[in-house]
Specification:
The protein is an all-alpha fold. The longest helix is centred in the N-terminal third of the chain and has 26 residues. The protein has a domain of about 130 residues: Orthogonal Bundle (Tetracycline Repressor, domain 2), CATH 1.10.357.10.
Length: about 200
């Protein structure tokens, strides 16, 4: 791994765990084990690091969505991958919240010029979820439903961060899985008869 990549990886972790505003050049340099002079060779400002972190998160999430597209045979199965990610990351979420939501919220509070760049992460998931819902035949309200699922997932991560009760997150995950199942088109009796004949 290059020094630049190591800086971005360390900054990504620190921004998530401690917040962007509370992470300094010195914190990142110490985490990577380099001098400040070497650090400035790669990044001149914290905003440059933030931009690189956002780009990294977008790239990582794109790869994850492509993987879900490959393993999920149906739109329902692919959407379930999105929801089950909350369970996979439950410990991190319990400690630090959602990496997407916390960064976007912090940058909004700071009125940071890179706030719209962080929004790209939500746009990426929104667009991907919308495509899955459109595959159900829900064209007209697909975007609204995508926003609804995003909203439910963000609410679940907030609750998991506020309340240490594991059952709360499990309940919210199941609620989202049921919501997805309700969206899934059910076979009509005519279709069942055709399959049997």
């Amino acid at each position: 791994m290059s020094t630049r990549d190591a800086i971005v990886e360390a900054a990504d972790k620190l921004f998530y765990e401690n917040g962007f505003d509370h992470t300094s050049f010195a914190h990142v340099a110490e985490a990577v084990g380099i001098s400040r002079g070497n650090f400035y060779h790669h990044f001149k400002s914290k905003d440059e690091i933030l931009e690189a972190v956002i780009d990294r998160r977008v790239s990582d999430r794109l790869a994850m969505l492509e993987q879900w597209d490959g393993v999920g045979e149906t739109p329902q199965a692919r959407l379930e991958c999105f929801v089950r990610l909350l369970s996979t990351n439950r410990e991190k979420i319990r400690r630090h919240g959602c990496p997407l939501g916390t960064l976007s919220s912090e940058l909004a509070k700071l009125d940071h010029p890179l706030g719209p760049e962080a929004k790209r992460l939500f746009d990426l998931f929104r667009s991907w979820i919308r495509r899955q819902i459109e595959a159900f035949g829900r064209i007209e309200d697909a975007d609204l439903l995508a926003l609804q699922l995003l909203s439910m997932s963000q609410g679940a991560t907030t609750l998991a961060n506020v309340y240490p009760d594991e059952a709360i997150l499990d309940l919210e995950i199941q609620r989202m899985l049921d919501w997805i199942a309700d969206l899934t088109p059910k076979p009509t009796p005519q279709a069942d008869q055709k399959e049997q004949s």
